[in-house]
Amino acid sequence: QVQLVESGGGLVQAGGSLRLSCAASGGTCSMDHMGWFRQAPGKEREFVAAITYNGYSTYYKESAKGRFTISRDNAKNTVYLQMNSLTPEDTAVYYCAADWRRTVFDYGNPGSYDYWGQGTLVTVSS
């Protein structure tokens, strides 16, 4: 009964900030790699950020570098995405996903993840 639940989305003005949270339960544990993806209307799901199971390495899409920060608190079984300097191009449904580490961490490929949350909507107004 693995479950990922995203929260923290909402409406924000351009230049503003949001912090997304992804809480894992039901078997998902601190040994998973975690990623954030987003999907805007009419577009493919795209990679945003990822973090290894121990937090040692992080990865970002180019447009997120310097603005977004992925982190995790394994004691709380939660991963975060801090998003600053938001623009309308960041508007999308944001999903967290777990990689159960059965193979190499292909962090930018949504097909490499094993379990997904339901998503949380982020809307950035200009």
Mean pLDDT across residues: 94
Helical content (DSSP H or I, runs of 4+): under 10%
Q: What global shape is seen?
A: globular
Q: How many DSSP E strands?
A: 11
> What structural class results from the helix and strand content?
mainly beta
The unreliable regions are: none
Radius of gyration: 13 Å
Structural summary, described in words:
- Strands 2, 4, 5, 6, 9, 10 and 11 form a 7-stranded mixed sheet that branches. A 4-stranded antiparallel sheet has the order 1-3-8-7, with no helix packed on it.
- The radius of gyration is 13 Å and the shape is globular.
- Strand 7 (68-73) and strand 8 form a beta hairpin.
- It starts with a strand and ends with a strand.
- By secondary structure, the protein is an all-beta fold.
- It has no helices and 11 strands.
Quick tags:
mainly beta, globular, single chain, 7-stranded mixed beta sheet, 126 residues, 4-stranded antiparallel beta sheet
Task: Note the topology.
Elements: E1 3-7, E2 10-13, E3 18-25, E4 33-39, E5 46-51, E6 58-60, E7 68-73, E8 78-83, E9 92-99, E10 115-116, E11 120-125
Parallel strand pairs: 2-11
Antiparallel strand pairs: 1-3, 3-8, 4-5, 4-9, 5-6, 7-8, 9-10, 9-11
Quick structural overview:
The chain is built from no helices and 11 strands. It has strands at 3-7, 10-13, 18-25, 33-39, 46-51, 58-60, 68-73, 78-83, 92-99, 115-116, 120-125. The strands form 2 sheets. Strands 2, 4, 5, 6, 9, 10 and 11 form a 7-stranded mixed sheet that branches. Strands 1-3-8-7 form a 4-stranded antiparallel sheet, with no helix packed on it.
